[in-house]
Amino acid sequence: QVQLVESGGDSVQAGGSLRLSCTASGYTISNICMGWFRQVPGKEREGVAVIDSAGTTTYADSVKGRFTISKDNAKNTLYLQMNNLKPEDTAMYYCAADRHLCGWLLLLARVVNYWGQGSQVTVSS
Known about the structure:
By secondary structure, the chain is mainly β. It is about 5% helix and about 50% strand. The protein contains 1 helix and 11 strands; from the N terminus they run βββββββββαββ. It has one helix at about 105; strands spanning about 5, 10-15, 20-25, 35-40, 45-50, 55-60, 65-70, 75-80, 90-100, 115, 120-125. Strands 2, 4, 5, 6, 9, 10 and 11 form a 7-stranded mixed sheet that branches. Strands 1-3-8-7 form a 4-stranded antiparallel sheet, with no helix packed on it. The protein is globular, with a radius of gyration of 13 Å. The termini are far apart.
């Protein structure tokens, strides 16, 4: 059973930076596609960034050039570096992993194999 635990969420001012981490257990992340999603109350969860086993990345247009997804296979940990944060980035951020979906298919997915519990990011203007 894959378990995902996020950390790093915080409250920051617009223009600031945060780095989210997602530590996985029960599976080696080098062999699976992983991604970050976010959700605001009352809205659907949306894909933010995805990284495949080879390190190829896919980003939502809203975060391109500001967010960077990466992973450390030795630490079995996924990261999301968020720079130049905007108030509209405020959301609960979720780490996700899927055994079959990757790239745009994972970014646009509503159902994935594994979810983390979420980490809150709040950006004030």
